[in-house]
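Design a sequence for this backbone.
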């Protein structure tokens, strides 16, 4: 047996150590003591393990919480950066809008000037319309006066003109004057009115179908309705030179027999005769 105090070999069944005098504890009690202390050690290990586990879990929790906080902080930082970026963009946008507003104000100012100019032009235009209206009124008054004058001239014309039969009229050569003005259905250079006066067919450019057109035959002294040459009466022509002849067997078409060339000039229907005479007078210098 071993003394627990001095660790020396001692005899069994002694109450105290012969070497150091310490009381000797029985083996059974020692085993109990060892078992108790082993139990205490395991309890201690258990407590340490529990505490360590708790601390580890707490450390993990703190780490997790920190990570979450850091993540939230990063998110907040990103949100702040985004907000700052948005604010910068809004600031730029605001600057651009201010520029646009200034431009719009400039345009409004320009439009106001244009509106003023437009108002002035409108006033000028209304004044011009008014002046034009006055001119039209004066023109209409003048036309009434002119119409009255023409009526007087025409009355004198009818009074001075001579009536002539179609047969006698055919004995006077036709001048190439005023033959094509107005509607010309067959496009032969003789108006429908002239063809009515000459007796040709206004729907055929070659009334007698001899391959020579009506106007060509008339101006060259040929009969466009029948055949052969027209027979002119120089004595009749000499007698009627300078007269206005009314085609009384038709529609009273007026002809003027020129003393210069002995040809008849078509003046038209009674309503047109005055105008044709005026036209003929202005063209007299060209008549040979
Ligand atoms: Ca014709
Ligand atoms: Ca013919």
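Sequence:
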């Amino acid at each position: 047996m071993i003394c627990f105090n001095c660790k020396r070999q001692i005899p069994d069944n002694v109450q105290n150590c012969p070497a150091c005098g310490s009381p000797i504890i029985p083996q059974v009690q020692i085993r109990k003591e060892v078992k108790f202390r082993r139990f205490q050690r395991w309890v201690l290990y258990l407590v340490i393990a529990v505490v360590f586990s708790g601390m580890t879990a707490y450390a993990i929790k703190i780490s997790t919480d920190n990570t979450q906080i850091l993540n939230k902080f990063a998110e907040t930082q990103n949100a702040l950066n985004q907000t700052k970026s948005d604010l910068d963009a809004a600031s730029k946008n605001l600057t651009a809008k201010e520029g646009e507003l200034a431009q719009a104000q400039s345009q409004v100012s320009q439009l106001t000037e244009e509106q003023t100019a437009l108002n002035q032009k409108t006033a000028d235009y209304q004044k011009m319309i008014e002046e034009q209206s006055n001119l039209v009124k004066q023109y209409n008054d003048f036309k009434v006066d002119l119409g009255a004058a023409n009526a007087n001239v025409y009355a004198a014309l009818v009074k001075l003109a001579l009536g002539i039969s179609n047969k006698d009229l055919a004995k006077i050569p036709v001048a190439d004057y005023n033959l094509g003005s107005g509607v010309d259905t067959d496009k032969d250079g003789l108006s429908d009115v002239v063809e009515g006066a000459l007796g040709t067919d206004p729907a055929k450019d070659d009334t007698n179908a001899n391959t020579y057109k009506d106007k060509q035959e008339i101006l060259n002294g040929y009969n466009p309705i029948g055949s052969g040459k027209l027979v002119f009466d120089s004595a009749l022509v000499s007698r009627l030179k300078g007269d206005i002849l009314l085609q009384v067997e038709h529609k009273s078409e007026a002809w003027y027999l020129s003393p210069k060339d002995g040809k008849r000039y078509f003046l038209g229907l009674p309503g047109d005769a005055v105008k044709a005479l005026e036209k003929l007078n202005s063209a007299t210098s060209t008549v040979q």
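Residues 284-288 have pLDDT under 50 and may be disordered.
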